[in-house]
Design a protein that fits this description.
The complex is a heterodimer. By secondary structure, chain A is mostly helical. Chain A has 13 helices and no strands. Chain A starts with a helix and ends in a 7-residue tail after the last helix. In chain B, the strands form four sheets. In chain B, strands 1, 8, 9, 10, 11, 12, 13, 14, 15, 16 and 17 form an eleven-stranded mixed β-sheet that branches. Chain B has a four-stranded antiparallel β-sheet with strand order 4-5-7-6, covered by helices on one side. Chain B is globular. The model of chain B is unreliable at about 1-15 and about 30-40 (pLDDT under 50). Chain B has 16 helices and 19 strands. By secondary structure, chain B is an alpha+beta fold. In chain B, β14, α12 and β15 form a beta-alpha-beta unit. The chains are: A mainly alpha, B alpha+beta. At the A-B interface, α2, α3, α5, α7 and α8 of A face α2, α7 and α13 of B.
């Protein structure tokens, strides 16, 4: 397995490098920040001068080489907007996003597991139909809309929770529900279908025939096997949550990297955009690797090739 | 960040629902308690100001963003300040006079200290200018003091500011672009230390900045004006418009900025909220009179002004809250009031004028709009309305939306034919007229020698009354020559709780927290 991990990490370096190149070129294609940063009374010469001072008029390859040599030393450049090291900015905010993502995932799994199991066990009853309807709702609803809806009802109408910002646990609830919405729906449906499949398997019938209680049959035998693909999906959902975090963090004024990357894109803050994409790419790769290993550990039939 | 994930949350089982319900109940209890604390006690008066986007930096020399400057100027002051009557009033300078065409003498306030006790004197003023112009600092705000040649210390409390040419709007530049910084402190802690822990002479002392969460300040008891009514001042960024309004409705914040015209109805009916408004950014549609053939003709440009129903744009798209501009001058610009007859909406007259100018069949131009540039409201809809109106008289304005970053570049390259442009700052200086319409500053789209002469006279006339007259003459000439399709100033709309005693200043874009008192 050690070899497998080493090989995966080796390949990831190429993935991350590829992502870096694509983002580097893409942001520079969209116009440079010099004109955005300068004061409104500036002339065309002032803009050109600032562009030159920031090095944006150099050939793309030169800029890229400069950037990569910095990255290798952990230097992602200085934020054009904040005039601080981009890496510091990202690291400051990263924990907030991870907190939100983990909380959202826990909410999602916490709701989806019981809902999916109940749906499968009570298949085709009112509970099943209700759960599936809500799952469809959850997968169709834009999180932007859902987040604001939660604020308007839970916070403004019913005065139960603060509307935005960060601080104690009460600030985390609504954003976690919002960010977890899609995952909750998706995992509910997955758990349901996996459970349905395992329930009909021979070994489950055997377990029942042995006289084991329904509860033991469900949890010890069926669920355990149903969970294996769910683990994979949870990992993928976690990666996808980083994109959802952009919207959720902006709606709830949650101080993470999602809000930061949105702001950076609007202000063409290249170093920060690049640093965040690099970070997310690394996290993605790491999560996928962990999920694959977990999968192999959970399912003895899977071997590393 | 201080956010806790307790063991309760990690136990992902069926008990979760029960735990969630009790958590919510506890949270509701603490939340309600926090609110009553904030509005209850009189001694510790906390004021929370929610705005759209977080500040950029704490060092005033490193930014040109007005949102950032709005926060900084609670801590750091300038020599003069815009009063509520459109005139500049004393701040760190008690009085001033013009010695000759290019020399202004400022008499500085005595007994003023920075937040660390360092005394304020003439050296601070000369230091501040030097630092701003220091090429090592690479300040984007340096062009703001471009008209200033030198600042000389006459004695400890007198400085002479010498401008390169006679410059009527020097006080504007001093207000908008020359914050006064503490030389001793900066020499001790360096530029980075200052940006982390800024100090100034202002009514509020910096406490802390947690990025994307809040900027926190507290009252400075030794301020030369006395202690402000607000004891704790907090600036909170809430990017999403409806969420910012929700925060005000919940009374989680005392004051919100950047309310859009569409949202005013949400808060207007609310008894505990006051809505205040003032004329904000100027919006106009520029015409390329240099390279685009039909627009070279004055009659065509005037026809365009007649063809577009600007009143309807103000009424229907901007809720009647925008201020229509008859000509190029803004409400606060000296000389504004002289034109009482804006171009009337008259499509027949416009068609006639176009025919007379040789364009009976109309013509085609590209019409560039950057929606959301400088957070201006509804530019897409305004662009569409203009385009539609023009098509009624045979002018095909092909609407092309551009991203704000791209827009800036293309504008400065002179690529546009017909475009919407937004100007935010220092309307009282007349600087926008000089920058946008004088041939030597930008000159990409309009170069007129007579306009140049009038603008120069306007920018160099130091006598206030004569300056108004020069402004009126310039305003009227530009009205006739119509280098733009004249539009409006969009409204700056604020919402604040009714116990806050404050009114918007029609002439000043900055919010001065020390002016706030409570009922």
């Amino acid at each position: 397995m050690g070899q497998y991990i080493a090989r995966r990490i080796f390949l990831s370096v190429f993935v991350i490098f590829g992502v870096t190149v694509v983002v580097f070129v893409a942001v520079r294609l969209s116009g440079d920040p010099a004109a955005l940063m300068i004061s409104p009374t500036a002339s065309a010469e002032d803009v050109a001068e600032l562009r030159h001072r920031m090095g944006f008029d150099r050939p793309l390859l030169v800029q890229f080489w400069d950037y990569m040599t910095g990255v290798v030393h952990g230097d992602f450049g200085e934020s054009l907007r904040y005039r601080e090291p981009a890496s510091e900015l990202v690291l400051d905010r990263l924990s907030a996003t991870i907190q939100l993502t983990v909380a959202s995932l826990l909410v999602a799994v916490g709701i989806a597991l019981p809902a999916g199991i109940v749906s499968a066990v009570k298949r085709d009853t009112i509970w099943d139909r209700l759960a599936m309807f809500l799952a469809l709702f959850g997968q169709s609803m834009p999180i932007f809309w859902f987040g604001i809806l939660l604020i308007l009802t839970v916070s403004v109408q019913f005065q139960l929770l603060p509307s935005s910002g960060s601080g104690g646990l009460e600030y985390l609830i609504l954003p976690a529900l919002t960010l977890g919405l899609y995952s909750t729906a998706r995992i509910t449906r997955l758990v349901r279908s996996e459970m349905l499949e395992t329930i009909t398997q021979d070994y489950v019938r055997t377990a029942r025939a042995k006289g084991l209680s329904e509860r033991v049959v469900l949890y010890r035998h069926a669920l355990r096997n149903a969970l294996v693909p769910v683990v994979t999906v949870v990992g993928i959902e976690m990666g996808a949550m980083f994109s959802g975090a952009v919207i959720t963090e902006t709606v709830f004024a949650w101080p993470g990297i999602g809000q930061l990357i949105l702001k950076s894109i609007f202000t063409r803050d290249y170093p920060v955009i690049q640093a965040i994409v690099f970070t997310i790419a690394c996290l993605f790769v790491l999560i996928n690797l962990v999920v694959d290993i977990l999968y192999a550990l959970l399912d003895p039939r899977v071997k590393f090739s | 960040m201080g956010v806790l994930l307790t063991d309760n949350v990690t136990r992902a089982t069926g008990r979760r629902e029960l735990i969630k319900a009790s958590l919510a109940a506890v949270a509701a209890g603490t939340f309600a308690a926090q609110r009553s604390m904030a509005t209850g006690a009189q001694e510790v008066r906390t004021f929370t100001y929610a705005f759209k986007s977080d500040i950029q930096t704490l060092d005033p020399h490193l930014t040109t963003d007005t949102t950032t400057q709005n926060v900084q100027q609670q801590i750091i002051e300038t020599l003069v300040k815009m009063g509520r009557d459109g005139q500049f009033e004393p701040m760190l300078a008690e009085s001033w006079e013009t010695i000759d065409d290019v020399t202004w003498r400022f008499h500085l306030r005595q007994g003023v200290t920075f937040h660390n006790g360092e005394p304020f004197d003439a050296d601070c003023v000369t230091f501040s200018l030097e630092r701003l112009l220091n090429p090592e600092l690479a300040s984007p705000a340096a062009p703001g003091v471009e008209p200033i040649d030198t600042i000389t210390k006459i004695d400890d409390y007198t400085v002479d500011v010498v401008t390169k040419e006679p410059y009527a709007a020097l006080l504007s530049a001093m207000y908008g672009a020359l914050p006064i910084l503490p030389p001793q402190y900066i020499r001790e802690v360096g530029n980075e230390g200052f940006a982390e822990q800024p100090i100034g002479t202002g009514p509020f002392k910096f406490v802390e900045w947690i990025k994307a969460v809040e900027v926190r300040m507290e009252a400075y008891p030794n301020h030369w004006r006395g202690e402000p009514a607000i004891s704790q001042l907090i600036f909170r960024p809430i990017p999403e418009d409806s969420v910012r309004i929700a925060a005000l409705q919940n009374q989680e914040v005392d004051w919100i900025a950047s309310v859009s015209v569409d949202r005013v109805a949400d808060i207007e009916g609310n008894d505990s909220i006051t809505v205040g408004t003032r004329p904000g950014q100027g919006v106009y549609a520029g015409l390329d009179t240099i390279d685009t053939e039909p627009l070279k003709s004055r009659e065509v440009r005037q026809a365009i002004n007649h063809a577009v129903n600007v009143d309807s744009i103000v009424e229907d798209l901007l809720g009647g809250m925008a201020t229509r501009l008859p000509s190029a001058f803004f409400v606060a610009t000296p000389g504004f009031g002289s034109i009482d007859h804006p171009y009337g909406y008259n499509p027949e007259l416009a068609s006639q004028m176009l025919a007379d100018a040789g364009y009976a069949d109309g013509f085609e131009v590209t019409f560039n709009v950057a929606p959301g540039v400088q957070a201006a409201q509804k530019l897409e809809e305004v662009g569409q309305a203009i385009s539609q109106d023009l098509s009624q008289v045979g002018i095909t304005a092909n609407l092309e939306f551009v991203d704000p970053a791209v827009h800036s570049e293309r504008y400065h390259n002179g690529e546009y034919q017909f475009y919407i442009y937004v100007w935010g700052s220092s309307h009282e200086s007349g600087r926008h007229i000089q920058t946008l319409l004088h041939s030597e500053t930008r000159g990409y789209y309009y170069r007129d020698s007579e306009a140049d002469t009038l603008i120069e006279a306007f920018m160099q006339e130091l006598d206030p009354q004569l300056r108004i007259e020069a402004g009126e003459a310039t305003n009227e000439y530009l009205f006739e020559d119509a280098p733009w399709l004249f539009l409006y100033q969009e409204p700056d709309i604020y919402g604040y709780l009714t116990d806050v005693v404050w009114e918007p200043n029609q002439y000043d874009i900055y919010f001065h927290a020390y002016e706030v008192t409570f009922e």
